[in-house]
């Protein structure tokens, strides 16, 4: 934040563990038995960002903005339509995840894991904790038998669950405990990067706080890098170092968390921040209530996708799609008017 | 004297299950004033939804598992104890949906998928008012416009699956408001929605509440929603109201250790300090602690007191009551002391 000079940047730039360039994922809309393609849903469209080793990067936006699809493409749970995902684990040569196949992809997946949103549907109800948390270890031939049990016990302990519960089934656990099981499973192979897709949005307030603290502790202990996908901005501000804001499949703003929350550059970010209900009855209520609904990625408006809901929109916004521009401050924003507008943050 | 429209006293509601008897609501008391919004907050399993459903007698509890009083005081008529009515009798059906109505969390499951929203809204009106289908349809279009439904004339003939989540929630609100109710029970009305849509729906509920002069019971787990919408806040834990106070008192001067813990678990937009969550979890409904329900997680629990007896309500300030031995609560039993 403070190192603005070019020399400072050179000396302190951390390693980019992940460099995503021009990532796109289009889903075809087909009709008839011949599945003739009539349209494309541009779920993720030319998304570019990077992740520094050891940081937590937030990926925020409303439902349908493409944040989950982006997360899934990064791990190749979905195959991207276009783009590069350069993963640099540090100890070996960087690879383009988007181009990997077969064995190489399987090897890579040890380093990248995912924590899912719904702790009920993401755990097989017929498997015990030992099966669930031990599955990655078995799949990669890391350990078995007694050694497997020891490792699973260690993992369960690290997420605050008792190892004695190893033979129990997921139904015996509460939502918060299940999310811990999901975290233990993601950590089994000592990954370097964890993509957490709305890991706390299904949890109650007090359990959510416990889980956020656990994620922060594990990050410090195991020097993990997180990509934290969420729609909850108060959680994002709490846990993330930098934030990528997405709208209708595109990145609209990238900034350090503090900068983003105190002085957003994109009108969508401003509206998103102002929509968060603040737990303070005396908070100022000059809310920007967005009209209308999020742009349909199958039928995006002309020009800037946000212009029909934007209070600042001008003619240029209706005609031309703005590029993602790097401002003088080094922040990135996709808005024609970014240099002219002064937008309100939350602090 | 304060103008109370709905008075819930010592409400208990439970369900027999194969694993044992679940006391979903265990002595909850609060009252709703005319024209105010009361926020009912608590974590899952605290009984907030069952309380609302019991008010309308749609919770599915049999009569022997219900006790307490829910007094509805309609303007210009005598007070009615809703718990004294037959759950499917004509009296409660005349009130349900007309004088007290409810909006649910998930509008996709609350609407029937095989009828258009228009027909469902029209039905809600024609059940209670003597109007023709055409008149009701005109009124429904008017109400859909009022809740800012885009293209009301056309979307009245839409099936629920053809609408987005925000639009479905607007349709649900329109249906609940068709008969101009005295009380609107809103059970997590925005939990399934995006933040920007949530902001739209909350401001809509606020505007309509002011225009119609109705009371709103806003049931939510989100303290931010409560801070923005409510004048009074009731905090529930394990089926009991542990603290009730004006909204500013709850956020600036919370008394009950659970309320304090709840406030400390919320990430604030202003600070990034480490969160201090309540230790442990909400106990299983089959395995409630004896004494105060919060004593096994409470940082200030007093052994020999909190784990033995149930604290009663103590008045700690202007319309601010709390059930905790730290502030008195010495009187044994759980009956609320009040002058009503």
Topology of chain B as a string of helices (H) and strands (E): EEEHEEHEHHHHHEHEHEEHHEE
- Provide the spatial order of strands within the biggest beta sheet of chain B: 6-7-8-3-9-10-12-11
Please give the alpha-carbon distance between the first and last residues of chain B. 9 Å
Mean pLDDT of chain A comes to 88
Mean pLDDT of chain B: 88
Broad structural category of chain B: alpha/beta
Largest interface: A-B, 47 and 44 residues
| Helix proportion range of chain B | 25-40%
**Overall strand count of chain A:** 12
CATH architecture of the domain at 1-83 and 233-302 and 318-340 in chain B: 3-Layer(aba) Sandwich
- CATH H-level superfamily title of the domain at 1-83 and 233-302 and 318-340 in chain B: P-loop containing nucleotide triphosphate hydrolases
For the sheet with most strands of chain A, the description reads:
8 strands, mixed
Specify the number of helices of chain A.
Answer: 11
**Spatial shape of chain A:** globular
Radius of gyration of chain A: 21 Å
Strand content of the residues of chain B, in percent?
15-25%
Q: Which spans of chain B have pLDDT < 50 for at least 5 consecutive residues?
A: 332-340
Strand order of the largest sheet of chain A: 6-7-8-3-9-10-12-11
Cα(first) to Cα(last) distance of chain A is 17 Å
CATH topology of the domain at 1-83 and 233-302 and 318-340 in chain B: Rossmann fold
Q: Helical segment tally of chain B?
A: 11
């Amino acid at each position: 934040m403070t190192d603005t000079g070019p020399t400072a940047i050179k000396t302190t730039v951390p390693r980019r563990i992940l460099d995503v360039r021009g990532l796109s994922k289009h889903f075809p809309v087909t009709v008839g038995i011949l599945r003739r393609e009539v349209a494309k849903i541009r779920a993720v469209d030319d998304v570019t960002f990077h992740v520094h080793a050891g940081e937590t990067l937030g990926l925020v936006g409303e439902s349908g903005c493409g944040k989950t699809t982006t997360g899934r493409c990064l791990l190749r749970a979905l195959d991207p339509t276009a783009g590069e995902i350069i993963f640099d684990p540090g100890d070996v040569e960087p690879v383009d995840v988007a181009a990997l196949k077969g064995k190489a992809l399987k090897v890579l997946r040890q380093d990248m894991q995912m924590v899912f949103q719904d702790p009920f549907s993401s755990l097989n109800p017929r498997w015990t904790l030992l099966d669930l948390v031990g599955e990655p270890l078995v799949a990669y031939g890391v350990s078995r038998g007694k050694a497997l049990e020891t490792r699973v016990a260690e993992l369960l302990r690290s997420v605050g669950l008792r190892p004695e519960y190893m033979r129990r089934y997921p139904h015996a656990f509460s939502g918060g405990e299940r999310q811990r099981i999901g975290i233990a499973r993601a950590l089994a192979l000592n990954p370097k990067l964890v993509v957490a897709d709305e890991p706390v949005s299904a949890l109650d307030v007090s359990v959510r706080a416990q889980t956020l603290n656990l994620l922060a502790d594990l990050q410090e202990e195991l020097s993990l890098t997180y990509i934290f996908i969420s729609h909850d901005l108060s959680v994002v501000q709490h846990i993330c170092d930098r934030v990528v804001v997405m709208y209708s499949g595109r990145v609209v703003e990238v900034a350090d968390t503090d900068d983003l929350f105190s002085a957003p550059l994109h009108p969508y970010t401003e509206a998103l921040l102002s929509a968060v209900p603040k737990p303070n009855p005396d908070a100022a209520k000059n809310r920007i209530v967005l009209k209308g609904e999020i742009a349909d990625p199958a039928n995006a408006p002309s020009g800037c996708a946000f212009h029909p809901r934007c209070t600042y929109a001008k003619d240029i916004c209706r005609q031309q799609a703005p590029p993602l521009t790097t401002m003088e401050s080094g922040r990135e924003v996709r808005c024609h008017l970014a240099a002219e507008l002064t937008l309100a943050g939350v602090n | 004297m304060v103008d109370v429209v709905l008075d819930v006293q010592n409400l208990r509601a439970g369900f027999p299950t194969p694993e044992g008897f679940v006391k979903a609501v265990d002595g909850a008391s609060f009252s709703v004033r005319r024209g105010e919004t009361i926020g009912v907050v608590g974590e899952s399993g605290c009984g907030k939804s069952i309380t609302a459903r019991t008010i309308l007698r749609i919770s599915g509890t049999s009569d022997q598992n219900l006790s307490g009083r829910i007094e509805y005081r309609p303007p210009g008529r005598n007070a009615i104890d809703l718990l004294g009515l037959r759950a499917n009798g004509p009296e409660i059906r005349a009130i349900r949906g007309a004088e007290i109505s409810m909006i649910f969390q998930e509008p996709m499951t609350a609407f029937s998928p095989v009828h258009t929203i228009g027909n469902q809204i029209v039905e809600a009106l024609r059940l209670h008012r003597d109007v023709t289908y055409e008149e009701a349809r005109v009124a429904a279009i008017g109400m859909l416009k009022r809740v800012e439904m885009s293209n009301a004339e056309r979307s009245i003939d839409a099936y629920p699956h053809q609408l987005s989540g925000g639009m479905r929630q607007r349709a649900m609100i329109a249906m609940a408001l068709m008969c101009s109710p005295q009380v609107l029970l809103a059970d997590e009305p925005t939990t399934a929605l995006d933040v920007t849509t949530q902001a739209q729906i909350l401001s809509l509920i606020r505007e309509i509440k002011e225009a119609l002069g109705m009371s709103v019971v806003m049931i939510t787990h989100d303290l931010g929603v409560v801070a923005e919408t409510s004048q009074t806040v009731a905090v529930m834990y394990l089926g009991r109201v542990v603290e009730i106070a004006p909204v500013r008192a709850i956020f600036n001067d919370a008394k009950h250790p659970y309320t304090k813990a709840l406030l400390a678990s919320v990430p604030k937009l202003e600070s990034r300090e480490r969160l201090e969550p309540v230790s442990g979890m909400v106990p299983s409904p089959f395995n409630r602690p004896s004494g105060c329900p919060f004593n096994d997680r409470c940082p200030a629990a007093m052994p020999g007191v909190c784990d033995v007896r149930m604290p009663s309500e103590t008045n700690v300030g202007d319309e601010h009551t709390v059930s905790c031995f730290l502030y008195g609560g010495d009187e044994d039993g759980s009956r609320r002391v009040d002058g009503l």
